[in-house]
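Trying the structure run again after the queue cleared.
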Amino acid sequence: MADGFLESRQQEYEARKAAWLRKKAHLPQQQKRLIQKPDDEAL
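Done. Tokens:
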């Protein structure tokens, strides 16, 4: 009984994970912003 329950939960988890990974692959990648530092570090 417990084995069937755990197997079904594992399959549901893997399906959710696969859907999440497919969605993540199509999202635009966020670019890192470069901080402009002043030439004079004494400020």
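Residues 14 and 25 are 16 Å apart (CA to CA). Worth checking whether this holds up in the mutant runs.
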